[in-house]
Amino acid sequence: MKSVLVVTLWLWTMLVPAAWAATLVLDIGGATEKTYSDFMTKLRTEAKGKDPMYVGLSMMPKPTKPPTYLLVELKVSKDMSITLSLSRNDLYVVGYSDMYKGKCRYHVFPDHDSKKPPYEQHSLCDKAKDAIRKPIGYVSSYTEIERKAKVRNRKEIGLGVNKLKTLIPKVYGSESKDYQDEAKFLLVAIQTIAEAARFPYIEKIAETAANPDDTAICLENNWSKISKEIYNQFKGNPQTPAKDVTVRTCKNLKGINQVQKYITLLSYQGTSRQQLTKRNVVSVLSICS
């Protein structure tokens, strides 16, 4: 039986001293796959750059220094939520915050922590002067997060909003020095939110509360490579015929309609001189088996 969830979504923007962030709120509570799908559509729209689409695929914007951030609040109830901070450069999750007992606590991966106030570097905790810094005790690589979660592979943990609903209460307000629950939460959150935004294939896994399979793991590990392969097919020649377009990374997919079932948001690779549309070209792509 497919998992059910109710998602209430709204969008607003706010300005902060050194980086601006838009906030999407995912209000977790009961039924429908459609509401999660609608949320992912809003997230992709907010994340993508302004450049034309590549055969129906969107691309992340050109990276900025300093980065700007996109916040996703995962709201379990009016009294419990966790907010993720995602870099607009690559949609990587750099940290999260929770408001506990009137204090905003911010948790940032050490490989993304500049030691500046949270609202200056990751837009976390807004402008709270009494924010509490709670560093994440491991870097943001999947290998390290899996190790702290005490799992051999992230395929062991199911995805989806209901899984987040179970894990968030174990992390919210926690003072535990054992990183296992936090790492499990981050594995699920990163894939259910950020990876699902890149890959509709992973979105479908999250919708049904399934575990990620080998194809999903391959996609996650090869996002930049796949994006570059797609971009290089059309760079300088948007009229490239289908018979001349081949990319080989894991699993054979042919035609843009099939490709879009697996990937929809590319990492930034550069710009094209003209728009690439379904009318111009049909893609041949090999992604992951």
Automatic annotation (TrEMBL):
Gene Ontology MF, one: toxin activity
UniProt KW keywords: Glycosidase, Hydrolase, Plant defense, Protein synthesis inhibitor, Signal, Toxin
EC number(s) recorded for this UniProt protein: 3.2.2.22
Coiled coil location: none
Source taxon at top rank: Eukaryota
Pfam families named in the record: RIP (PF00161)
Reactions performed catalytically: Endohydrolysis of the N-glycosidic bond at one specific adenosine on the 28S rRNA
Keyword Signal applies: yes
InterPro entries membership: Ribosome-inact_prot_sf (IPR036041), Ribosome_inactivat_1/2 (IPR017989), Ribosome_inactivat_prot (IPR001574), Ribosome_inactivat_prot_sub1 (IPR016138), Ribosome_inactivat_prot_sub2 (IPR016139)
GO biological process: defense response; negative regulation of translation
Top EC class for this record: hydrolase
Signal sequence annotation: 1-21
PANTHER family documented for this protein: PTHR33453, RIBOSOME-INACTIVATING PROTEIN (PTHR33453:SF34)
Family from the record: Belongs to the ribosome-inactivating protein family. Type 1 RIP subfamily.
Protein name according to UniProt: rRNA N-glycosylase
Originating organism: Mesembryanthemum crystallinum
